[in-house]
Amino acid sequence: MMNDSLPLQDFNASLQAFLDASPTPFHAVVSMAQRLDVAGFQRLDESDDWVLEPGKGYYITRNGSSIIAWRQPAVDAAVNLGWRLVGAHTDSPCLKVKPNPELHRQGYFQLGVEVYGGVLLNPWFDRDLSLAGRVSYRDDEGRIKSALLDFEQPVAVLPSLAIHLDREANASRSINAQTYLPVVMGQADEKPDFRALLKQRLEVQGVAEVETVLDYELCFYDSQGAALVGLNQEFLASARLDNLLSCFIGLQALIDGGEAAAGQVLVCNDHEEVGSMSACGAQGPMLSQWLERVLPDADQRNRSLSRSMLISADNAHGVHPNFSDKHDGNHGPLLNGGPVIKINANQRYASNSETSALFRHLAEQVEVPVQSFVVRTDMACGSTIGPITAAELGVKTLDIGVPQFAMHSIRELAGSQDAHGLYKVLQRFLQTDQV
């Protein structure tokens, strides 16, 4: 039976805490794993032999940045009812530190960065930036280990050039990613050793056995936390709403969904923002390899997939009051107007009439309004893990999302009610025996 839904206020408070604790995909997966542990899910290692019990919850991670969590059904239920899958992605566009990043210019210590994904670059200037990610090191006994690192406090800034030195800035300034984006870390008489700085920070965090920092995957992030804003707190403002918002919604729906006859699955992949082609991305083998292990018989697996459905949750473009002409006039989703079914005739989204109809039906049952998005016919359409996963597994799929503004900015904006609405619909989806 389905558990009670979290009240809106409690849901948003938990969501904000999750966003603030998840500055990188690595941290997001740790945050999700901690919540799954509390909910009684058992962590499994992909290198171990698995003994799975029907009705019990499990999860695995890959690369520390992708996660699959599920409740194991009985074999006959998996075959006859299939799986209810919710998919999202853990990564967000950002600025990543280069391997040899140190710069020393005009007495300032700077780090060179690489642009990850389709970043909206202008908003990164004049923000209080911190730094987080994964660091790999050799310990005192010669073993190679990794640890997560988060400076937490603001340690960097990307200052704008004054308008007095570029009078055309408001009319024509474009950003050269190579020359304009090195981040200012502070002042120094000579070029510091960045790896030595990381070693020092790891020791501050309690990792005392570091002999040498060998490599890292680090990105800058906005140190300002998530907040409810607006005269009546109508909006949620935060970094990484695309797509940690969907990760949290799917996670909470799975935890609160309760047991069901059909299999219940949450998959959150890394690398969606750069094409999903990786060992832990949606275009990689992670999900199909997992499915082969939880349902080993190929004939049973194919029969099960024919009775399964995936909901790919990735945020949608809300109609902006200052740029309403960027939307089709009949398909401009409103913030706090409910989750959005995303449709594209050229299969950039995987929705079809049957999967859309089921979602509308489930939303009616929990009294959540539903909207639609179709990109203007004269504009290109983005995509999601939906079509990729549908093609990899052959599973019927729906693309949906919470409407938002400022997608791919350093700070994005969504309605404060929409995530909770989608959470209630996904709870019901994980319980349904009808796909």
TrEMBL record:
Top-level enzyme category: hydrolase
Entry's EC annotation: 3.4.11.-
Record flagged with keyword Secreted: no
Cofactor(s) annotated in UniProt: Zn(2+)
Keyword Protease found: yes
A molecular function (GO) term: aminopeptidase activity
A Pfam entry, by short name: Peptidase_M18
Entries under PANTHER family matching the protein: ASPARTYL AMINOPEPTIDASE (PTHR28570:SF3)
Homology family: Belongs to the peptidase M18 family.
Protein's UniProt name: M18 family aminopeptidase
The organism of origin for this protein: Marinobacterium maritimum
